[in-house]
Structure formats: C-alpha cells, structure tokens
Amino acid sequence: MEKTLIEIDKAAAVLKLLGDKTRLTMIGLLKDGECCVCEFVEVLQMSQPSISQHLRKLRDNGLVKERRSGQWIFYSLNRESDTFSIVESVLELIPEQMDKLKELENKGLRICCD
Amino acid sequence: MEKTLIEIDKAAAVLKLLGDKTRLTMIGLLKDGECCVCEFVEVLQMSQPSISQHLRKLRDNGLVKERRSGQWIFYSLNRESDTFSIVESVLELIPEQMDKLKELENKGLRICCD
DNA sequence: TGCATATATAAGAATATACTTATATACTAA
DNA sequence: TTAGTATATAAGTATATTCTTATATATGCA
C-alpha cells in the first residue's frame, strides 16, 4: 500500500501541468476513458491547435498516451507513469467531468469518434 | 471520511502554486512545523525578496498563514483552507524536506529563529 | 532617539506560457 | 489521384511569471 515517493522536481513539473484549468479539465475528462481531440475541442470550446498543444505537453511528460484509430487519435491517462499517483490523488478531489461528455453525446456531437 | 470536492478553477490555482519547485519545497518544509523567512532563505539559497514573493503567493491563496513573533514572521500550513486536501495529498507523495532543516540546525544557522 | 535586523514591497528585465493564424501531415473515401 | 477530415506543428504575439536591485516598514535594543 506504500506509495513510491516522487522526487520534488518531477512532482513540481507534473503539478505545473495540472495547474492549468484546461489541462486539469482534460485529465478529468480522461478519468473514465478515452477522448479524441475533436471531443476536447467541443467540450472545452477552444481552438484545435490550442488543444493539441496542451495534449502535447501532457504527453511529453508522460501523463497521457495516444492511440490512433483511423483519422482519430484517442488520448487516455497513462496509468503506468511514475507520477500517476499525483494525477490519481488530484482526480479524487475535483468534480467529475463526465457530464460534459454526456452533454456532447446528447447533442449528437460525439459521433465523430465512434 | 468523504472529502469535499474542490471546484476545478480553485484546484487549478492551487496546483499551479504547487507546480513550482521553490514553493513545493517550502510547503514540504512546513509539513512538520513553522519556518521563518530567514530559514527559507538559507535552505533554498535564494534572495530574501524572492522568498517573500513566493510566500506572498502562498498566503494570498490561503495555503499558508503567518504569525509574527518579534522581528520574525513564522509561516505554517493553513490546515483550515478549503483546498488543504490537495496540499495534504501532495505532501504524501513527495520526499520529506525535514533533513534540510536539520542540516541548517547542525550548521547553527537556525538560531535566528529561536 | 538612532541603528541593526527581519521582512515586505516596488519597479524593471529576462524568460515562460498560452493563445492566434497559417500550414503541414496522416488518413479516408470517392 | 484528388478532396475532405482530423490532427500536429510552426511562427508570432500578448501576457504571466520569476527573478533582480532598490527601498520601505516593523521590531528590538543601546
């Protein structure tokens, strides 16, 4: 049950990534599954390049991983990351973001990724 | 045992504050007690104004509180903050910073705050 | 009162961050 | 092959961040 400690530099880097509302919401959206870029664009109401740039930071730091499926690239949490415990802890303390995906689904806007 | 959820904006703000090595180390140093500004200056090897500015950010966001005692101002974690659970979780995942204070004590540099 | 110490604040500079628009790349399907 | 869709990258800009140096404030003590 003992968690491995994360060195301070690495912890600070991850916390800095999570310390941005857009990226924190993204991580929240990934809590229960995958999302593709177009879904983030819809939910977060931001430009596609901006979303891609945030995802790149998360990926470069190993917080998320990607999986291509046809034209789409699906992102998911990288639970194998040695800093995942930070992400996990934070996810327990913030509200679920799932409802935003549900809304999207209700509007029929999630079809692009089926 | 159920923790109250922290809204995403507020969580992101706190995580941003913790996402800086200097401030994260400060929080780590406060885990087991108070520290005064001159101790932070010694341990972190940074200028006094820089330390004060970091402490101000932490204080403005309610993460730490201050207590004046003579010429010295002692900082401590604000365990009453509604975002303290984030700080608490992070503290469990990073190494103890106490040894740095011990070193200081060994060098006799902690006398200023007795 | 006057000086020393501890801390805070102000102003400015260098750098980092997060957008924007434009364009490149990868895949699908006609 | 060509057009269309999804995503990534590049370049530029506005703003935020974190230092620095100089100065202000608060306390203690002779």
UniProtKB/TrEMBL annotation, chains A, B:
Keyword Secreted in annotation: no
Q: Which UniProt keywords apply?
A: DNA-binding, Transcription, Transcription regulation
* SUPFAM superfamilies recorded: Winged helix' DNA-binding domain
GO MF annotation: an example = DNA-binding transcription factor activity
A UniProt-annotated Pfam family: HTH_5
Q: Which Gene3D superfamilies match?
A: Winged helix-like DNA-binding domain superfamily/Winged helix DNA-binding domain
* Record bears the keyword Transcription: yes
- Identify the domain of life: Bacteria
Please name the InterPro entries in this protein's record: ArsR-like_HTH, HTH_ArsR_DNA-bd_dom, HTH_MetalResp_TranReg, WH-like_DNA-bd_sf, WH_DNA-bd_sf
Q: Which residues form the HTH arsR-type domain?
A: 3-105
Q: Which NCBIfam families match?
A: HTH_metalloreg
Q: What is this protein called?
A: ArsR family transcriptional regulator
Organism classification, top ranks?
Bacteria, Bacillati, Bacillota, Bacilli, Bacillales
